[in-house]
Specification:
heterodimer; A: alpha/beta; five-stranded parallel beta sheet; globular; B: alpha/beta; seven-stranded parallel beta sheet; 15 helices; 9 strands
Chain lengths: 222, 342
């Protein structure tokens, strides 16, 4: 039965059909699955499946990324209310758009996926000064700072990720806090993330979730 | 032959000494005139002077009447533009903050009477007088299905488009389509002769094929119906769109396509063939760190793919300010050299 539910849910997400995805969830709950089952056996595998599909499928599109995150976040939020015990949180990420950048879509997609993957997100919003990223990450004991930038000058400029890297270095935080970047400019030059001093980059919002989870696990292991 | 003649020859497949070479140096203008971005973009004479100086320096075939993308939002009521010292201005405040604002959104009856149009008109007058007979004057016009992203933010627009109330979505699209129709007429009347139809949602990188066909295509048809497709260039904001080229040619009759650097140029040329113009576009973000030799090699690669059988133009995206001048020079030198038919 679970296999059938996962398949139907995945199809709904792939078709960006939120209503159908919720219908699958409701039917699964009525059929005896718990809220925990829905999140850990349906939603999280679906996000992981979409990560894999997006990487393999050149025709994967922005609407699919957006709806994957949107549906995953909404279902998870709803299911969490019925959890018998609060779930174990993997870690914490501080996220925002680079200084001078007001494009919030990428951030929203990443946040939706992270919510479903049980990562705590501190959302700093848009147009975030570099110092604020580091101040909040320090205060919140976050393992990752994630910066989204949609324009070349906000991705590569002196007040964006480069400055965050400099501050992390000056404060001796580089072993405790990792820096990940994403956004259109990085897609056009896959070496750009190294130029701005990031530890990693993600080609899309859905895969950013996986990369951030890996970075958190790496920090926690060390 | 003038650059305009060369462009016409490329579209029609008639003999010409070389391919057309287009370059978009928008953010380089302030530096060229020794001004801040804010000062430069406040005056259409500055923008025209910047465009003319840059074109004269590098010798490419076009000038731009575009100040920055947020200009269209200003025509629809945006009062706050965020200026930076190192890159293009950005919409600083969205006109639509809630669905209620969509009902209140007003498309000006006469765009050319709007205060936000006046500097654009001044710029176009100068460009038309100075180079209008010989060179292409480009205008940037955002499609109805994409314009909402600068009026309400991309994430809010995607939410409305994909899962919002259809009547609200359609009201916004209707207003944006009305705006496009008026805007394209205004630009044509003012002398723009290459009209870049910016339609990222007209790419299956943004929405799936089903939604492209059922939702995006009808609105593009509505945008383009009254004014027609003369001088229109299909451009998806650097997103790949090879998968829809054939449909766009068939249903919209647009035959000039500005191909993404992320797309397979040979495939695009194979689809468009001699029916129109394939524009091969360099990845100018990579040019920030490339050497002049790498830049030259990439131009050569694009020209080798595209210029066989004519019907080919070499172009750029919006070249980032951080691209070294030496790379811009190397790119254009190579485009003229490898784009030569003699």
């Amino acid at each position: 039965m679970l296999e059938r539910i996962v398949k139907a849910y995945n199809e709904a997400v792939f078709e960006t059909d939120k209503e159908a995805a919720f219908e699958v969830v409701e039917a699964a709950l009525a059929g005896g699955l718990t809220a925990e089952d829905i999140v850990f056996k349906v939603v999280i595998p679906a996000v992981e499946e979409m990560m894999s599909n997006i990487t393999k499928d050149p025709d994967a599109n922005l609407a699919q990324h957006f709806m994957t995150a949107q549906i995953a976040a909404e279902v998870t939020e709803k299911m969490l209310l019925s959890f018998k015990q609060p779930p174990e949180i993997i870690g914490k990420v501080v996220m925002g758009t680079a200084h001078g950048d007001l494009h919030s879509l990428g951030k929203r997609i990443v946040m939706g996926c992270l919510k479903a993957l049980m990562v705590d997100v501190v959302d700093l919003g848009v147009n975030v000064p570099a110092e604020r990223f580091v101040d909040v990450a320090q205060a919140e004991n976050a393992q990752v700072i994630a910066i989204s930038a949609m324009m070349v000058h906000t991705a590569t400029g002196e007040n964006g990720a480069s400055k965050v890297r400099r501050i992390l270095h000056e404060r001796g935080l580089e072993d405790r806090i990792k820096l990940v970047v994403g956004g259109a400019p990085y897609r056009f030059d896959d070496g750009l993330y190294q130029t701005v001093g990031a530890d990693a980059w993600a080609a899309d919002g859905v895969n950013a979730g996986r990369i951030i989870v890996d970075l958190i696990r790496g920090i926690k292991k060390s | 032959m003038t650059p305009r003649d060369i462009l016409a020859a490329a579209v029609n497949g008639t003999p010409a000494p070389r391919i057309p070479v287009f370059c978009s140096l928008l953010d380089q203008g302030p530096r060229e005139l020794g001004m801040s971005f804010r000062e430069y973009f406040a005056n259409g004479e500055h923008v025209a002077a910047g465009q003319l100086k840059l074109r004269a320096r590098y010798g490419y075939d076009n000038v731009w009447s575009l100040f920055y993308v947020g200009k269209e939002a200003e025509l629809l009521g945006c009062n706050e533009i965020l200026f930076a010292d190192d890159g293009p201005p950005n919409v600083g405040d969205f006109v639509i903050k809630s669905y209620d604002d969509i009902a209140k959104l007003e498309v000006p009856d006469d765009i050319t009477a709007h205060p936000a149009w006046q500097e654009t008109a001044r710029c176009l007058n100068i460009l038309r007088d100075e180079v209008g007979k010989t060179h292409s004057i480009c205008a940037y016009l955002t499609a109805s299905t994409t314009l909402p992203s600068i009026l309400m933010g991309m994430d809010k627009w995607l939410e409305l488009l994909l899962i919002g109330p259809a009547d609200v979505r359609d009201e916004l699209l209707r207003k944006c389509s009305d705006f496009y129709q008026k805007e394209v007429a205004a630009y044509r009347a003012a002398g723009a002769n290459v009209l870049v139809y910016s339609t990222p949602f007209g790419s299956t990188s943004f929405v799936g094929m089903k939604r492209f066909q059922s939702l995006i295509m009808p609105w593009m048809q509505r945008d383009l119906a009254p004014g027609g497709i003369r001088d229109i260039v299909y451009y998806c904001g650097m997103a790949p769109f090879n998968s829809v080229i054939a449909q766009v040619m068939d249903e919209l009759k647009i035959n000039v396509h500005y191909i993404s650097p992320l797309a397979d140029l040979a495939e695009a040329k194979g689809i468009i063939g001699s029916q129109g113009l394939t524009c091969g576009v360099i990845d100018d973000i990579k040019m920030i760190h490339w050497t002049t030799e790498q830049t030259r090699d990439e131009v050569r690669r694009l020209c080798d793919i595209g210029k066989v059988g004519q019907h080919f133009l070499f172009g750029t995206g919006v070249v980032p300010l951080s691209v070294p001048a030496a790379n811009i020079q190397a790119m254009l030198d190579a485009a003229f050299e490898f784009g030569s038919y003699s």
